[in-house]
Input
Amino acid sequence: MNTALNLSSGPHVRDRWTTRFIMHVVVLTLLPAAAVGVYVYGLKALWIILASVITAVGTEFFFDKLTGRPDTWMDGSAMVTGLMLALTLSADTPLYVPVIGSIFAILVVKCAFGGLGKNFVNPALAARCFLLISFPSTMTMYSVDAVSSATPVAELSAGNVVNITKMFLGSAGGVIGSSIIALLIGGMILWALDIIHGQICFSVLAGFVVFLGLFGGKGFDPYFLLAHLCGGGVILGAFFMATDYVTSPVSRLGQTVYGVMIGVIGAMFRVFGTAADSFSYSIIIANLFVPLIDTYIVSKPYAFRKKAIAIQNGEEKKPLLQRIPKPVIALTVIALVAGLALSGAYSVTKDTIEEQRLAANKAAYQAVVPDANSFEALDEQVSALGGEVYGSGFGRVYINEAVRGTDAGGNLAGYAISVTSNEGYDGTITLYVGVSADGTVNSISFTELHETPGKGMICGEPAFKDQFSGAKVSSFTLNSGSGDAKIDGVTGATVTSRAVVNAVNAALDFYQNSLKGGA
Amino acid sequence: MKNTFRGGVHPKEHKELSRDIPLRWFDPKGDLVYPLSQHIGKPAKAVVKKNDPVLVGQCIAEADGFVSAPICCGCSGKVKAIEKRRIISGALAECIVIENDGQYTPVEGMGVERDLADLTNKEILECVQKAGIVGLGGAGFPTHVKLSPKNPDAIKYVIANGAECEPYLTCNDQLMREFADDIVAGLELILRLFPNAEGVIGIEQNKPEAIAAMQKACAGKARVRVLPLQTKYPQGGEHNLIKVIAGADYPVAKLPADMGCIVDNVGTIYAIWRAVRFNEPLFSHCFTLTGDAVKNPGNYIIRDGTSLAEVIEASGGLKDGVTLKKALAGGPMMGFAISDLSAPAQKTTNGLTLLSEDGAEIALLKQTACLRCGRCTTVCPTGLLPELMAAAAQKGDYERYEKTLYGLECVACGSCSYICPAKRPLTETFKAVKAEIMARKRAAQAGGGK
Output
């Protein structure tokens, strides 16, 4: 009989799942989102995905070969990194961006720290943040149907209406992997297969929703919360990025704490900071806390948990409050106190902030209402607009603020209205329109104008903008009409000229409907 | 209620190889070899000399102290030698070698039915002790010790372990199908020692025939019931059974009796019944010969001391053209690899699994870096954090391993190694670290005693 038998310690059988298999499943679950991206944005999205994936895998291949390390390039993890990075890019990104990003992700974030299992932040997200810093303008260039547009989250944070259905399907603009339904399908499959930990993704979402509900300013408004959840990579982050094995904690409690942290930090960025990329940064920040969490939040074996010890000692069950682990209570209290403190500080200082604002802007107001020497804010009328696009026929125009100016004798001297148009040739245009007590336009003055030099920028020169001064009309018309109402556009800058005229008309409309007679 | 514990894995069962094959007595022709230490505790002391004649059921080695067990002969013949032989653990150990005359002449009084009515608890325990009964589930803890807790009145459950969660093994399944009445009678006998206890027979749901047979045997009996358990490894672990039945988690430092439980394998309970009722000491036990390398898998009642090679040969040997890679005493999860198949079966050898493919070897070749996926944490029935334990072990941070991560609570069930997608040898590491920490503790104690 055979005498050369293998000897080893048990167990002597193994599950069939390998690292490679798991990584390939993750790739498969990302494919629906990638497919929707290609469908919506066309082949250019496909090239970005391929460039990113091939560079990621290739970089790891060369690293393995050059350093003589065991071949890890085909274990699928580089493919996951490359694919995830591509899904977080705009379809308009030039191909060198995903290539550079993938090289950075694999070479610097992953391999330099020891390869799979050793990186301390998510490689794809770190690469995305690296790209955001390196190529700020290209990285934030988004378009839908070849028309440049703002991402839904940018619109949302500007207080605009977004189309949730479109966001759900993935045709609302933004990054390649923005189809919520496709991402949810993939995420749910991973969850059902126990590949991702439910406590991470659901605590991310819970932390995000609760914080936004409490401090987002709109309460638990389903539309508002849903719009935020569907935008800006929350779903991609919660199901695919936050759950990255290597950069998430080990114990269930640790995972929950980590998830809530991501959700809350992400929501804080949305509420108090710039909305863009809030989730990339919140996940990276939470990644950095993982070693700390793994050191201090270590669950005890079942037999050493309070309930088990109580049963071992034959004690009665404790009331619910005592069974909730202390760290959970502590963290909840800290989160609540911090949030309340922030919102409290805001409301206490609100009036002061307002006075300072009035003082700081006095010069700007006086530029358009020269007779006035004191101003009072008309926030009530402005907030009545709900921060939405003003009226119809003016394009994407918003009324920012309005003030009422009085002269030394306390008589009405006029109004200054700040208005922003998103329809400039190269971004937004913001200007003040001064209207005197009798409804005559005093003058306009730009506070934001970054149009094409020699063309759109000419709108900021007296030859163009002084056309508005002294006119007492209900609206202006571009290159048509007669008398004071006719504005001659700047040659070669029709878009800018029209945006300015529309913005001024919106301000006049607002004056006539909301300010005149009242206040 | 799901009737299971938290965690666990579902290794491929392979029970179909032998599950419906009835138990057969196997009478060896060759010598029987009895290692003096087949149980936890002090080794037995030989009470026979070379050339002494022996009979079936005769005591050939007696217990040395309370936590020890005697050894009874399974054949008739004479003592050939008392010498060092290779045993299944691979070690050389002192053994009594019996030359088998093939007659199987029983010792006087064996098989005589005993009247149970007047039997006192003390007499029952004495019977169990003299019969050399130890835990046949694999641990080999002397059963009379287990049945003598400090406070018998505090015992709430006597658990008959018929889970048989180990892949491949089917002999307990067959034992329960064929000897259901004897097992229930044995369980009732044990319940006489524990007036406040209920007898619960835990059986995994993958054994419907055994469940039916045991339920039939329990019918109309007030103090015993069958509890079907979810099929999941390691359902038959003592901690997991107690979790399901008594609802308690307890640390390894405590005994089942501290939790009001006594857990015995159904094979052990059957042996108790044979010993007390028929005055038949433990010299045989049920045994599964299985694995993809064996031609005719089957279930046997074998005599302790039988050479494993003889059982294989008599069954028809290995499959033609199959290379035997690994031979396991027991199943593939908790069993251990044997180097020499001529070693004798011991009391606790409940199976022999012969495999043409070695999962541990494949794992060694396919091993990759830990990606912290947490699958080991999910499956750990004890609630440990194997990936952090492995990291601490790698760093040599035994302080954190023991104090923060409770690494010594590991029961070495193998679930973490089994599930690891990176094929890392987790259980193996934990066994080694535990041995190292215990060795250091002993050294420190010895040093402190000076």
